[in-house]
Write a structure and sequence with these properties.
This protein is of the alpha/beta class and 236 residues long. The chain has eight helices and eleven strands. The strands form two sheets. The protein has a nine-stranded mixed sheet, sandwiched between helices. Strands 7-8 form a two-stranded antiparallel ribbon. Helix 1 links the parallel strand 1 and strand 2. Helix 1 crosses helix 3. The longest helix has 25 residues.
Length: 236
């Protein structure tokens, strides 16, 4: 029995680069698809939001002279490219999926609505939700929070390259220690960065717990669904 019935999986665009410096690493993409299929085969309903930082990050573009709105729109298109890649990889793995876009761009994907996403999941398809929120000035973390709340997910699984929430950045501070569980209030009080403040607050106010884990280790997604404590649970 899976720990959660319906999940919103947030994937990092940067992680899709694998060992590359830019774009999509086919090996990493295939590994993600295999892990998602494993959980899908357990009967879990899956919605996915994926970042676009491996292709273009709007805020970074602003620092190089891009207009913020146009930069964010470019980032939204980057998430769409990643979503299409993931959908293709899932098809190759024998796992049905549908791409739902926050901005109208048929026939690339169907225009997103909560009810379309839920219907797709209930029909046994993975719902890949791309284009962020459809508006500038919002990160894909905030898009994940919004979509997770809308599709009535039991939890947001934040797949990163770090295996949980630490007292400090473990890549910079070797003395950093990991939390097995932590509350939203502790996140605020300790100044820890799990997601941006808007995204974290949305999850807290709407009762959506966040589980942070390392998605880049093959098999970890299934371990989370089996209840193994390999990451950090953020809750009220």
């Amino acid at each position: 029995m899976a720990r959660f019935k319906r999940i919103l999986l947030k994937l990092s665009g940067e992680s899709l680069m694998g060992e590359q410096k830019y774009g999509i690493d086919e090996k990493r993409l295939a590994e993600y698809a295999m892990q998602i299929k494993e959980v899908h085969d357990m009967g879990v309903q899956i919605g996915i939001v994926i970042g676009g930082g491996n292709i273009f990050r709007g805020l970074k573009g602003t620092g190089k002279g891009f207009d913020r709105v146009k930069g964010d729109q470019m980032g939204m298109l980057a998430t769409t490219i990643n979503g299409l890649g993931l959908s293709s990889a899932l098809t190759s793995a024998g796992c049905p999926s549908v791409v739902l876009t926050a901005i109208r761009m048929e026939p690339i994907g169907e225009f997103y609505s909560k009810w379309k996403a839920i219907q797709a999941m209930e029909e046994g398809k993975v719902a890949i939700l791309v284009g962020g929120t459809g508006s500038p000035y919002f990160t894909t973390d905030t898009g994940s929070s919004l979509r997770g709340i809308e599709i009535e997910a039991d939890v947001m699984l934040k797949g990163t390259r770090v295996d949980g929430v630490y007292t400090a950045d473990p890549e910079k501070d070797p003395t950093a220690t990991k939390f097995d569980e932590i509350t939203f209030d502790e996140i605020y009080n300790k100044g820890l960065k799990v997601m941006d403040l808007t995204a974290t607050t949305m999850c807290k106010e709407n009762g959506l717990p966040i589980y942070v884990f390392n998605m880049d280790v093959v098999g970890n997604l299934k371990k989370v669904m089996n209840g193994e404590k390999i990451g950090t649970l953020v809750h009220d």
